[in-house]
Amino acid sequence: MKKINKTLLAAALLAAGTGAANADIVINSATGSEAFMQAYDSSQKLTFNFDLGITLAQLNAGIGSKTFNFSNDANWNTFHGANFNAATTQFIVADGYKTQAYFTSNLVSPVLAKTTLLLAASGAIENAAARINSGTPISAGTSSLATDGINPGTGQWADGQSAPQTIWGSAGDQQAAINYGAAGGNFFGVAFDLATKLPATTEIGHFTLNGSALTFAPGSVSAVPLPAAVWMFGAGLMGLLRLSRRKSAAI
Q: What is the pTM of this model?
């Protein structure tokens, strides 16, 4: 009986250890590192952390429109309760590992001009996720709350280290924070380009946090390049107009 109990205890401890390991934002993986969101209300001094469960591999392959509804999330309802101040709330979404980084930015075209800056940015993202992991364990689709001044370094936005709005400060301060309710927070991907030997930045889409939902819309709001045929048609039309004017002038 004692042997059986010891076996069951060992199995239970193993299961518990496995569960604890999985109940984290995945980091340190070129394909499996997970994107996370942090929202911070500086009036409440409260940070809402959420594991999106979207991996680097999925981001690299391209993701479609997504909505994360927090209306049934107890932590969000505390964060978004009676003391919530929309005017003092910002958020970030980020994912990264070594020569890959994804992050929100209020810049139209953020630049990480050197590989060392890309490594610094991805490192800052990993460190932020590690701090969240040091607090209440969360996994894909789950959340946690952290309050300024209580157990610093466990997921607080303002924990005395690099705050998310300047989390890429060592990489040129990419101004990652997006205002709550603002439409179209830019979301960029940066990776090492083998051809140029430099980081290449691509606009992936836009994140918006409003009401009790985080939404993602893929694509760029920048001007869409017109097909070559359209440019040829336009050039031909301009030529005809010039010819018509010359004839008119001759008459």
A: 0.78
